[in-house]
Design brief:
It contains 17 helices and 2 strands. With about 450 residues, the protein is mostly helical. It has a two-stranded antiparallel ribbon with strand order 1-2. It is globular and about 85 Å long.
């Protein structure tokens, strides 16, 4: 049906067949499977270990290596890749709305998809009991993304980096303050050893230092919370569900705005990378190589320094306070560049090809990971494996699960063109039942207009 102003016929239909961009499916598949490495510590271990002292989850040499490698190479980068892909996906979906006379129907479709994603995300939280859900977070961030689609790539990049810049400024300001505190404490200890009366400033420094040391120890409140967690995790369904719902409410109150802002900022960078052709494989091999080397050099270096600082388990000043978000973005960019480089070689393409199937049913795989972790492997009414593994054991469990899901995705893709949840999401967004099985005939595109 024709657009009233332009007279052009506009058809809205999912991107399928050769119109899909293989490297985006590969990136999405790698990210959605790889994110299980980051989620499984919460699913299979204690909250205090996942978000506080990692030694509580086991600290044998293999555990230390597993934790350190994931922190440097993977932590946050799968989330970062998905966020950038959301930005790129917005550009693909709304391509028909890029002109001044672009149809309102495109915006309607985009908003419907986003609002339905929000519904699915809340179902993941409250029905499937996953307090670490990212779907609703990405939906909330995506609601604000559409008006930014026509900005220049450089402007999008600058806006996207503002979140990391705020973190850098805050961390950089805290670093010299902590250095000064350490010097005051050292001077106070020297004075105490010499039996010299302490100054008011030294007393205040020791008191502040004592508070920071207390944060490295389990408080009575935290010990009580760990006991409540163990009871809920190992008990029946109702107690388990109630505890997980309360966990999500606590996370939402304290950190939902943080995660939405992070996701939105990274999506803006994804839009910029798409406009430059970087994320979808249109840049030169030299560009990808240089970007990969530079991004990994900074990202891995900053993160390795951060791991070294954290392994001291002491309130020393930490450079990672300033570099954390920049390093996450850098390693994410390095991963994207590496995948694009590999996809240009015959061997690399063959290696990455299985992830295309995973990328095309990423939504369904994400929920499958939730079901495996939160309903099958770890709860008391499942296999009861909660808190049975250290970091290395959890990493091995995640690897086995990922391999199984990757194989299942490729078998599934032989018979179906879309995942079950993707099918539901797409059908709801387009207000029409979509093609599901491969032998089904493709339905005609939806014609939108007056």
């Amino acid at each position: 049906m024709a657009d009233r102003e332009s007279g052009a016929t506009v058809q809205l239909a999912p991107v399928t067949g050769r119109a899909r961009i293989d490297v985006l499916d590969m990136l999405r598949g790698i990210a959605i499977l790889g994110i299980f490495y980051m989620n499984i510590p919460f699913m299979g271990g204690t909250v205090q270990a996942a978000f506080g002292d990692p030694r509580l989850q086991g600290w044998m040499p293999a555990d230390r290596w597993a934790w350190s490698i994931i922190e440097v190479v993977a932590e946050g980068t799968q989330r970062g890749t998905l966020e950038m892909l959301f930005g790129a996906g917005m550009m693909i979906l709304t391509a028909k709305a890029m002109t001044p006379t672009g149809p309102v129907a495109v915006a309607d479709l985009y908003m419907r998809r986003t609002l339905w994603l929000l519904v699915f995300g809340l179902l993941d939280v409250f029905a499937l009991l996953w307090p670490g859900d990212i779907l609703h977070t990405y939906a909330l961030a995506s609601l604000f993304l559409f008006p930014f689609r026509k900005l220049a790539p450089r402007t999008l990049l600058i806006l996207g980096l503002l979140w990391g810049t705020l973190g850098f400024v805050g961390g950089a300001a805290e670093y010299p303050q902590r250095v000064a505190l350490v010097h005051k404490v050292e001077a106070a200890h020297v004075a105490q050893a010499a039996h010299t009366p302490l100054s008011k400033d030294q007393k205040e420094a020791l008191a502040e230092w004592g508070k920071k040391l207390d944060k490295l120890r389990l408080t009575p409140k935290q010990k009580k919370e760990m006991a409540e967690e163990a009871k809920a995790r190992r008990g029946g369904f109702l107690g388990y569900a109630k505890w997980l719902h309360l966990q999500w409410i606590d996370y939402a109150k304290s950190g939902e705005l943080f995660w939405v802002l992070e996701a939105f900022s990274t999506m803006l960078i994804g839009v910029a990378l798409f406009k430059w052709g970087f994320i979808q494989g249109l840049s030169s091999s030299r560009t990808y190589l240089v970007a990969m080397i530079a991004a990994y050099a900074f990202g891995f270096g900053a993160r390795a320094m951060g791991v070294h600082e954290r392994l001291a388990f002491w309130p020393i000043p930490k450079t990672i306070w300033a570099t954390e978000e920049y390093a996450r973005l850098a390693v994410t960019l390095g991963h994207i560049a590496l995948v694009n480089l590999l996809a240009r070689t015959r061997a690399g393409y063959a290696l990455l090809s299985p992830f295309k199937a995973a990328g095309r049913i990423a939504f369904s795989l994400y929920v499958a990971e939730t079901l495996i972790g939160m309903w099958l492997l770890f709860p008391g009414f499942g296999l009861g494996l909660w808190d049975k593994f250290g970091w290395a054991g959890l990493a091995v469990t995640a690897t086995v699960t990922i391999v199984v899901l990757l194989i299942a995705a490729n078998i599934y893709s032989r018979y179906f063109v879309i995942g079950p949840l993707e099918w539901a999401w797409r059908s709801l967004a387009y207000c029409k039942r979509q093609r599901f099985r491969r032998h089904d005939e493709s339905p005609p595109a939806i014609v939108v207009g007056p």
